[in-house]
Design goal:
- It is a single chain.
- It is built from seven helices and nine strands.
- By secondary structure, the protein is of the alpha+beta class.
- It has one domain: Chalcone isomerase, CATH 3.50.70.
- Strands 3-4-5-6-7-8-9 form a seven-stranded antiparallel sheet. A two-stranded antiparallel ribbon has the order 1-2.
- Strand 8 and strand 9 form a beta hairpin.
- Helix 3 runs antiparallel to helix 5 and helix 3 crosses helix 6.
- The longest helix has 18 residues.
- The protein is globular and about 40 Å long.
- It comes from Roseateles flavus.
Length: 200
């Protein structure tokens, strides 16, 4: 007995859905506010895929474009924090910001999303993290900051491909930094879902 078109259409859609679910996760390049966010990044010899990307907006001013790279797709903050292997987040500036302002904004984001006991574990790393922005000076439009988590080494930061600051060894601190955008009080409520693979 032949299938009716509507029943055939439903079966086709179901089959397509099952096929899509069975395929490996494939990251695709995206353009955000004129910035081409690469689909992959190589960290510690492993190829990471773009988990999500979006714009950090302050009031109505677009400040930077951010991308998050992981070994496997994650759609929740907990999944990102527990992710195994190397990671990267990248920030490409859409306007000039002084290193002091940038560092203060990051510190405020960490403070808002961690408690005093958690921060007390990372006093030295917080200090070293803040010094990075003081030493870098202004971040100009088009400049890119990357922060890589390298298992067995720590958090390695670079500006326009040049390593800056010291290596910060604690994965807990790397997660504390990620909470600036993925914590319960993210600096931008629209950027958080974008980094988790939602719409930019």
């Amino acid at each position: 007995m032949s299938l009716c078109p509507s029943r055939l259409s439903r079966r086709t859609l179901v089959a397509a859905g099952l096929l899509a679910a069975a395929l490996p996760w494939t990251a695709q390049a995206v353009e955000v506010a004129g910035v081409n966010v690469e689909p992959t990044a190589k960290v510690a010899g492993k190829e990471l895929k773009l988990n999500g990307a979006g714009i950090r907006t302050r009031v109505i001013v677009k400040v930077y474009v951010m991308g998050l790279y992981l070994t496997e797709k994650q759609t929740t903050p907990a999944g990102v924090f527990e992710s195994q292997g190397p990671r990267r987040f990248s920030i490409t500036m859409l306007r000039e910001v002084t290193g002091e302002d940038f560092g203060q904004a990051f510190m405020a984001g960490i403070t808002a999303n961690t408690d005093k006991a958690e921060r007390s574990k990372f006093v030295n790393q917080l200090g070293a993290f803040g010094e990075v922005f003081v030493n870098v000076g202004s971040m100009k439009k088009g400049d890119t900051l990357t922060a890589d988590w390298v298992p067995g080494t720590g958090m390695v930061m670079a500006v326009n491909g040049k390593t800056v600051g010291e290596t910060l060894p604690d994965i807990g601190f790397y997660n504390a930094v990620l909470k600036i955008w993925l914590g319960e009080k993210p600096v931008d409520t629209s950027l958080k879902p974008a980094l988790l693979g939602g719409k930019t």
